[in-house]
Model the fold of this input.
Amino acid sequence: MSGTSTIRRLRKPSAAFLAPQMAKKTPASYFLPSLFCVRVWTQDIEVDSGRSKSRPGPWMSTSSSESSSGRYSMPEQPRGVIRALATPETVDMMLRSNWGPPTAGVYVLKSKVNEWMTLAWVEDLASGSTQNLIRTSDAWIHRLTIRNHRTDGRVLLIGEYEARENTVNALNALPVGVTIPASPAAPADQRVYPVMRAEFTSDPGGTPVKLLYTELDITLDQRLSGEWTFSDKWDVWKRGKTLVTVDLKGMLSYETWTLLDAARAGTKGRFLFSATAPALAPLSASTFSIDIKSMDFEVDEIGHDATNGWVTFSASGRALIDSSSGDFLTITKT
Done:
């Protein structure tokens, strides 16, 4: 085999950072771990670095749509998904566009995008090949799912984002002022919220019942809307009130029957999700909680499953919003 060999791009040495911007259209440039930037401990990440191309149109001849003049780049519309381990600092950073930063550990819902973020993905290879930095500016995490699946072992944060534009720079020719850490740039806060120390409780202020589950997803959806503008390129904003949904799967038990009884009676209740990350010197333990003030569930069909030998249970709930102040939901972190 002749020719120059290719140095493969490996996932492990790469790094992702989230940093709040000073203002819209002002990409962040400082990516050293600090109060102003977090190394996201990603499970996987989607960085939309390409450009969509035009599709062949219904022209009279093939050459009209397939020639060089008939093929062009579409307006850039960066979007992707961040799947990260839930740590206290990652919770802060992925919530703050819509809920933060917190005050005395309490997050308050904002009526519009509170802070624009820059997502920086560093191709950090020790092999000496050309490396790159992709900065996705004016990024907004419009949908955040707190995933608590027993098979994962750790609570995950799944953030879906859209942004204004991407900038690609070679690491050996970064613009003046752009600062990135040296490898390996490990996350500063490694206190991960473990699944086995997470609970989902009904009626926490009255007669609390801890619900048994194998999978629990809590989604905070800001209802994305966007359009292409000549002045702001791809622009995004909130389309309406925040939607909060809960998807729960588990085994049918006395505790889960309380959901079924309430669903049949049309009864609405309060539910509390709470996860605790153990202390990791010099950092103390941290508790992250989501208190849903009023919610009812729609329960799927139930029945015996011969595969696993027990009765499975699935339900979907949606928080009820009676005001625009955000008091239908309380998010705290200590």
